[in-house]
């Protein structure tokens, strides 16, 4: 038996510069306070339009499982992927590979979920660890900095199972854990409520855009001798009462069809030099192309990519800048 290898595997590495824990609190490896850390099946599941959910790394990038964006698998595929372990309430979903690895999310209640590729299931020991507290700990800035130390710059960055099982966890008494989780959970609920409100407002904005700039409902109303619904006098005046031909078909009279670059400037961004440490870990969020493509929202408000800072100018994300105000439209 290779004793030295076994000892190395069970070592506990406390985050650098972390002071002594409060009285009654202690450090532990994740596998020391969990019933199990389970890897996903190493295969790509066949997706379906309905059925049980299959969770992927992009489904939990906010620290919350988003069923509205998740994919589905058949009942047969689901049964195959839960042969090792069935995700249930009280477990945590954890991303182990990809752009946003090292993020934890709770398994929602009353949902059938199986693991997609690059995912891990963590089952805490409920006698010692509150799963909601553990999620906040794994997603904390302390652990984000700790996990960042495992980035190697490769295209497919990942955490292996021994590393995940050895993650350090600061463990307060269970009553303290529940109290901390309750406070942070109330904030989570408020954030989720705001997200849903924003989603409703975004759906309304999309419907309005469809009506005005795709279906041209105000123009058609004028043509029929009707008053456009819900428009004040100034807004109503922006829409003509006739159509004209265009390469894309009939469009409102005096409107134009053309490239977006006729209406906006294209500003190219850049990446700060990675070999200059002072360019990084500042307080200026830096958005990469991956942040934008995997955002899943209308607005990019947070960036999982590292923050940059002085000296030197902050890099800019490619952003269109309007040249002049005039009616414009496009088809989605």
Word description of this protein:
It is elongated, with a radius of gyration of 25 Å. It has nine helices and 14 strands. It has two domains: 3-189, DNA methylase specificity domains (Adenine-n6-DNA-methyltransferase TaqI, Chain A, domain 2, Alpha-Beta Complex), CATH 3.90.220; 270-315, no CATH class. It has helices at 3-9, 75-81, 131-138, 141-148, 161-165, 174-214, 217-223, 233-236, 289-293; strands spanning 26-29, 34-39, 47-55, 71-73, 92-95, 104-106, 113-115, 119-124, 168-171, 243-244, 251-252, 264-267, 280-284, 319-322. A hairpin with an 8-residue loop joins strand 5 and strand 6 (104-106). The longest helix has 41 residues, at 174-214. It has 332 residues and is of the alpha+beta class. Mean pLDDT is 84; it is low at 1-8 and 311-332. Helix content is 28%, strand content 18%.
């Amino acid at each position: 038996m290779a004793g030295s290898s076994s000892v190395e595997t069970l070592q506990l590495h406390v985050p650098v510069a972390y002071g002594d824990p409060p009285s009654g609190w202690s450090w532990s490896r994740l596998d020391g306070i969990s019933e199990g850390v389970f890897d996903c099946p190493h295969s790509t599941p066949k997706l379906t339009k309905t059925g049980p959910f299959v969770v992927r790394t992009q489904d939990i990038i906010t620290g919350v499982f988003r069923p509205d964006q998740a994919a589905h698998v058949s009942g047969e595929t689901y049964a195959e992927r839960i042969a090792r372990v069935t995700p249930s309430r009280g477990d945590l979903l954890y991303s182990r590979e990809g752009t946003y690895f090292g993020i934890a999310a709770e398994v929602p209640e009353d949902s059938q979920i199986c693991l997609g590729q690059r995912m891990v299931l963590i089952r805490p020991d409920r006698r010692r660890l509150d799963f909601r507290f553990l999620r906040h700990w794994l997603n904390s800035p302390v652990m984000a900095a700790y996990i960042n130390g495992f980035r190697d710059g490769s295209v497919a960055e990942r955490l292996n199972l021994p590393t995940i099982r050895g993650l350090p966890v600061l463990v307060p008494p269970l009553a303290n854990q529940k109290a901390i989780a309750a406070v942070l959970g109330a904030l989570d609920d408020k954030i989720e409520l705001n997200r849903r409100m924003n989603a409703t407002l975004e759906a309304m904005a999309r419907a309005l855009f469809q009506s005005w700039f795709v279906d041209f409902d105000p123009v058609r109303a004028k043509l029929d001798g009707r008053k456009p619904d819900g428009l004040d006098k100034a807004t109503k005046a922006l829409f003509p009462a006739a159509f004209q031909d265009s390469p894309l078909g009939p469009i409102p009279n005096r409107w134009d069809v053309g490239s977006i670059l006729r209406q906006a400037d294209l500003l190219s961004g850049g990446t700060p030099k990675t070999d200059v440490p002072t360019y990084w870990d500042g307080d200026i969020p830096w958005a990469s192309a991956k942040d934008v493509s995997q955002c899943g929202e209308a607005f990019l408000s947070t960036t999982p990519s590292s923050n940059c800072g002085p000296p030197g100018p902050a890099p800019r994300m490619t952003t269109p800048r309007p040249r002049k105000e005039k009616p414009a439209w496009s088809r989605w």
